[in-house]
Amino acid sequence: MLVHICCSVDSHFFLQRLKEDFPDEKLTGFFYDPNIHPYSEYRLRLLDVQRSCKKLGVALVEGEYDYERWLAAVKGYELEPEKGARCEICFDRRFEVSAKMARKLGEKRMTTTLLVSPKKSWEQLLKTGRRFAKEYGVEFVPVDYRSGGGTQMQQQISKKERLYRQDYCGCLFGLVQQREQQGKPADELFSPLCGSVLPGSIEERLRMYEKRLELEEEGRGYRIVRQKFLNYRLKLGWVRQKKETLPSYILPYSTMKRRYTKGRVEEQSEGIGWFNREEIRLITLERYNEIAQSAYESVSELLYAPMPSETDLKVRESVGLGLWDLSPLIVLERIPEGNLEIFIESEIYPDVREKLVVL
């Protein structure tokens, strides 16, 4: 039986039940989720599914991440709510590809772990699964593992197995709608060109779960704990003088009340300049290098290969900006004389991140 897999939280419990109910059936997992965005989230979910299937002794096949085709398929349905028309198109795509894979592998039956998700429409899944299974000559197996306390048991197993519990379905459009309802930024979509790992980001979680696998292979104990913290995302920022944009690096937790201001440096000392607006401080690249123990030759180099965020926080503290200080701190090649224009659009918000504690 080919089992289409969407995520480990659904698949682990689902596969366990399938093994119990179909003891003579050889199960093959098929991870096919072109709707998941961004790609780092796709990699994270695949990583956890691989771990889960290995534990259960189930072979796993990875499908193509054809995200562009998925986008084309749901064009015009971007604003549909979850369980609406966009989800139906998404199911069509995943079921059709899964049915093709089942036939290619010589499987006579197919099913999907989507059936166990309480956030998915059972009727939609049943209708779509049967249609494409019939079209490609395989049997669709519509098992119901939600009822009879199944959902509660699934949650317990997920906790026990320490599976990655994502907090959105995976779809870009569903994510944006969900974050708007929560009044939070969709920070999953923030991905700096420099490739740096932002606090609380998917990339940070991916690194943590990769490290978790290493610990398990070494037989070392660990805990995954959740931590509340104040997160920060820089959306846009620049410094200009006489209409010319100066290379600038804006450190984390730099915020401005009105986003834009115009003024000049009132005084400077030892590579630090005090601006006369918005409590802004400017720091030379030379002073930054001294504090961060780095060797950047230009601000542009710093922009495209920055230090870890922890280092930037230490730099802030070293120039007198303490733990709760949200004053902007900006790195420039030198402290300029004359008028400057500064624009910073950023967001600070309560968030939760996962941390790996090695025992």
CATH topology term of the largest domain: Rossmann fold
Q: Low-confidence stretches at least 5 residues in length (pLDDT < 50)?
A: none
Helical/strand content category: alpha/beta
Number of strands: 14
Please work out how many helical segments DSSP would assign: 11
Q: What is the ordering of alpha helices and beta strands?
A: EHEHEHHEHEHHHEEEEEEEHHHEE
The rounded distance between the terminal residues' Cα atoms is: 40 Å
**Strand arrangement, major sheet:** 3-2-1-4-5
The 3D shape can be described as elongated
When the domains are counted, the total is: 2
CATH class of the largest domain: Alpha Beta
Average pLDDT:
94
Overall radius of gyration: 25 Å
Question: What is the CATH superfamily classification of the largest domain?
Answer: HUPs
β content, as a range?
15-25%
The appropriate CATH architecture of the largest domain is: 3-Layer(aba) Sandwich
Helix share bin:
25-40%
What does this entry look like structurally?
- It is elongated, with a radius of gyration of 25 Å.
- The model has no long low-confidence stretch (mean pLDDT 94).
- Helix 1 crosses helix 6.
- The chain has 359 residues and is an alpha/beta fold.
- 38% of the residues lie in helices and 23% in strands.
- The strands form three sheets. The chain has a five-stranded parallel beta sheet with strand order 3-2-1-4-5, sandwiched between helices. A five-stranded mixed beta sheet has the order 8-13-12-11-10.
- The chain folds into two domains: 2-183, Rossmann fold, CATH 3.40.50; 231-350, no CATH class.
- Strand 10 (265-269) and strand 11 (272-275) form a beta hairpin.
- It contains eleven helices and 14 strands.
